[in-house]
Amino acid sequence: MTTKPILIVAGEPYSVFIEIYLKSLCKKKIKCIKDPIILICSKSLLVKQMNKLKYKYKIRDVSKSNLDLKKLNNKKINLIDIDFKLKKTFDKISSKSKPYIENCINIALSLIKKNNIKTLINGPISKKHFLKKKFPGMTEYFAQKTNSKGEEVMLIFNKDLAVCPLTTHLPLKRIFKKITKDKIIKHVNTVHNFYRYYFKKKVKIAITGLNPHCETTDKFSEDEKIIKPAVKKLKSKGIKIQGPYAADTIFLKKNLENFDVIFGMYHDQVLTPIKTLYGFNAINVTLGLPFLRITPDHGTNNPMIGKNLSNPNSLIEAINFAKKIN
Hints:
2 domains, 12 strands, single chain, four-stranded parallel sheet, Isopropylmalate Dehydrogenase
């Protein structure tokens, strides 16, 4: 089997990600990984955090190498150093870090294309400061960067249960306009093909309604006119899908035993329950790109920087997922 590197873009420089990354390297699950893990970030930021948290890892700078994979291993941190002017008083997230983050991402995308890499892990990025309302979220940003606009699908993945919001980072008042039969069919097909290709599994899917209890007093019902016809069409193609179900009961334990993935109509309808169920043992996977983009299921959490209290489990799950896909 050809060795493929696991690329990690650290993301927002003022976040807990480097602390979490350093913690993850101590864990047995990560120590046994043979695929070289390559971190893309500022060396000055990395060293500052290592010193503060008293980690003694050695760094191998691979910034100017041709990435000879046969010579790389994880005995040292494999680092692609991206220049970032570290200020002594750098104590808050701002748009000033945007060029640095964008440079990290561009380097990663170039390496992916050149080396046919299947996965990319990126640390948390502040949508408010980095995207500046140009995109609803990083899912859509990566779709634009890779000429995959309209193909992107957000999947919050755990091996026991995953969820997929049909719409992502949208205000509630705009959601109903984005729900269409074609979009449901396209997203479900993408998730179905993902499980079939990577896990050799015919996935069992449930889909929620938009309205409470799948009922409405309005003249137009999205559940009747859009969701049910989409489900009928998908069933006719041999996909195992049921619904629409009321979102307030589909996550009951007895229901979860029957499904692998639950589709919701909007972000919090399915992300709130899965985070309640699995905490940091879930990861965000973007499907529909030329590669799988994976992000740990946590934000920048900058108030926790330097306190050595952040939980690395979601990043560990992300790295292990990338290893399996490689």
